[in-house]
Design the sequence.
């Protein structure tokens, strides 16, 4: 605790430093109500969860890494309203050796999963040295386990670059159809072309977002909420903090944003600073670990009129949920203007 007090004194003495230096990672906003770890006894190091309400329960996906191969698997588990598991988790048979960072979303009451893969034996990695490409599939529940059907992966779309790892596209439903936000700046909206490996660009809007904590990247699905969609993004910035052991390392940040409920789906508001909660960045040091990072990574949320429950991965080894006051969060967002 002493290092935290010293760090806060240091912040007071250097007001002329950049905003990155003066960000207090333990100063929670008033809309952040509570955070709790979600524990799966059979999978103690699961991380990067997504959630959806379906069939009267909460369905959660998660990622798990197998050592020493570092292959990455996707699991599924049912939770109750206290975010406790109510069944034995299932590994999803994707047909690939390695998949990661799934997002769950309902499209016209059908359950879909959106995920990325760097499978080395497929055409996906032959096309690009980046290796990662986005996949989408429908999930079918037979009463005992989930199976995948209508699997699609995307090789051809606007913005594709040979060395880019394609990850973190934002799925959302519009008029009973799956759409995908490829990026936030610009806010480029893609539609998968059925029975193909391609997406078409529907809309692309520029905005005046000023975010000081790294490149804006997708996080959760976008969910419709009255006159707009709500979603959460992530970014990363290399910096020192009380949690980085005296070394500069990437720190991941979470923010919220809204975008219009109708085409062209322009972004309308965004968090002016990262969402922070008490103990968000407290860190256990795990071995093995593939790279030194300070991570909170959002992949899904559910909400009602009063509250939001956002799930996120922590330090690539833990599952967490944070409860927020919805109206206070929305009021905290700064307006975003469309650039022509």
Sequence:
């Amino acid at each position: 605790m002493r290092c935290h007090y010293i760090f806060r004194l240091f912040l007071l003495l250097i007001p002329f430093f950049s905003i990155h230096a003066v960000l207090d990672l333990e100063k929670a906003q008033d809309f952040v109500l509570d955070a709790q770890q979600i524990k799966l006894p059979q999978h103690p190091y699961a991380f990067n969860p997504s959630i959806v309400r379906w069939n009267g329960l909460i369905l959660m996906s998660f990622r798990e890494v197998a050592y020493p191969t570092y292959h990455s698997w996707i699991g599924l588990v049912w939770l109750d309203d206290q975010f406790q598991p109510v069944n034995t988790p299932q590994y999803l048979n994707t047909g690939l050796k390695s998949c990661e960072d799934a997002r769950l979303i309902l499209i016209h009451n059908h359950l879909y999963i959106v995920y990325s893969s760097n499978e080395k034996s497929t055409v996906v990695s032959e096309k690009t040295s980046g290796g990662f490409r986005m996949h989408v599939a429908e999930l079918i529940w037979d009463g005992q386990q989930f199976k995948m059907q209508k699997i699609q992966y995307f090789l051809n779309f606007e913005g594709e670059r040979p060395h880019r790892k394609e990850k973190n596209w934002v799925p959302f439903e519009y008029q009973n159809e799956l759409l995908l936000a490829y990026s936030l700046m610009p806010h480029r909206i893609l539609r998968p072309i059925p029975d193909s490996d391609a997406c078409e660009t529907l809309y692309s809007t520029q905005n005046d977002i000023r975010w000081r904590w790294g490149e804006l990247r997708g996080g959760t699905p976008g969910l419709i909420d009255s006159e707009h969609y709500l979603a959460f993004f992530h970014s990363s910035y290399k910096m020192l903090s009380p949690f980085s052991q005296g070394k500069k390392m990437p720190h991941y940040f979470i923010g919220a944003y809204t975008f219009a409920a109708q085409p062209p789906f322009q972004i309308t508001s965004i968090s002016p600073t990262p969402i922070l909660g008490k103990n968000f960045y407290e860190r256990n040091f795990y071995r093995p670990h593939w790279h030194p990072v300070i991570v909170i990574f959002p992949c899904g949320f559910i909400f009602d009129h009063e509250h939001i429950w956002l799930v996120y991965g922590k330090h690539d080894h833990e599952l967490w949920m944070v409860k927020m006051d919805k109206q206070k969060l929305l009021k905290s967002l700064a307006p975003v203007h469309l650039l022509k």
